[in-house]
Amino acid sequence: ILNVEQSPQSLHVQEGDSTNFTCSFPSSNFYALHWYRWETAKSPEALFVMTLNGDEKKKGRISATLNTKEGYSYLYIKGSQPEDSATYLCAFEKTSYDKVIFGPGTSLSVIP
Amino acid sequence: GAVVSQHPSWVICKSGTSVKIECRSLDFQATTMFWYRQFPKQSLMLMATSNEGSKATYEQGVEKDKFLINHASLTLSTLTVTSAHPEDSSFYICSAPDSGYTFGSGTRLTVV
Known about the structure:
The structure holds two protein chains of two kinds. By secondary structure, chain A is mostly beta strands. Chain A has strands at 5-7, 10-14, 19-24, 32-38, 45-50, 56-59, 62-67, 72-77, 86-93, 100-102, 106-111.
């Protein structure tokens, strides 16, 4: 059974704070790690797809790192804004376009 | 970018009736569609994978006679929950591989 875990389960931060969350996944037979941002009543939005150990990706104030040897990825948000409030999902892909295993998500609330 | 349109967004049905959920790829051809279910505070769990022109592949523990999947064309996949019961109440969402994975917006099913 492949388990993908995320921590914390939920997070409340003040506007302007920086924050980070963790995704842990099986370190064997790795193909890709995805991060999604999911706002209520909308489709999950792809943030990053990372495939190589040591990958670092950035999109505006959001960045992510990947360690495939130890099986974890961090997502960082710098200077959180209320519009960053969403659930952040990570998903582990064992082989290309095979089923993607999702973590339970981290729910972020940014308080103005 | 790629869009998957999922309908309905929410549905309430009586126990014993059937409900059909549609996912359409609007600007790309989806030869594969993944169907997920999410119970409160849990991860998105893969139920089945549909492939255009062939039988769907179901995950262990998912009843194929209860969750009928049809992938009749390259732009339409449907999930029918047959003889729905209250325990089928859940959030259902589809996803198609494109350059990454594109999700529908989900369907909240409540069986009363």
